[in-house]
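Issue 218. Parser rejects a valid record. Input:
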Amino acid sequence: MKIKRICVCLNSSPLYTGMWDIFSEVYTKTTEFIPTLFFYGTQEELDSEVKKDYGEVVLLPKYPEVIVNPQLDWTIAWSLYWGAAHYYPEDVCLFSGIDDLPISTILWDSMREIPDDKYVIPLGKNPYNIPSVDGTKHIIANGYNCGKGKTLKKIFHMSDNLQEELYKLWGNRHMFASQFPSNHANLNGWQRWWGMDEAYMSCFVHDHPDVVFLEDNFVKDKIQGTKINRAEGFDYDLDKLNNKEYSFAHIPRPLTDERNMDKVTKLLKDMGIW
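Output the parser choked on:
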């Protein structure tokens, strides 16, 4: 699988201010991928929030009538996948959180021999380690998933129109969420349907012939288990960093907090990027 784009989404949330600038610079300087941002909002918000020194930016409109929690907006997450399917049907797109920076190439190395027409779910079939209820399948994670835009469109039966696509998901939310009862509380509680994109995806991927799952143990040991993690103080060993023994860095937020920015600046200097 030859990846062409690394795709992320963003709105004007202050929690992520400045992250595209860093994310796009790091990927441009350390990989051959094209950093691609799907910005969900207005042209004015885009111009005030995002620099365009690196990568490409696509502006997508908001549909407030299906946004139930602006702080955890499920429509942004699904618009990312729709955007890749609509604008880049022939490009292999890798999807990421905008607060995840690459340290090593272990993830894409693991997908190198997989054909370009497949859809890869690297985090395995049960990424959240949720016990199965009455034999139901597990909900999958959308982090680091990878495939051509046209493959996404085929697997997830996407509409050609973003508004129609979002209304389709919203109108059927209870139907597909009910297929994953062990995760239902995460969808319908205080998070207000954040994670609906993962519930919807999970309805299609488990038995699909074009979907490839990486092994759960690989994810646990080689990806998640080797992250520089903000939840663990964002500490790292310099020798391990230089030897590419870490997979990704999950950076602290917001970057408007000087303490967080200092930590990220140190990492980028230690990586030789700044």
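Fixed in the parser; the record now loads. The radius of gyration is 18 Å.
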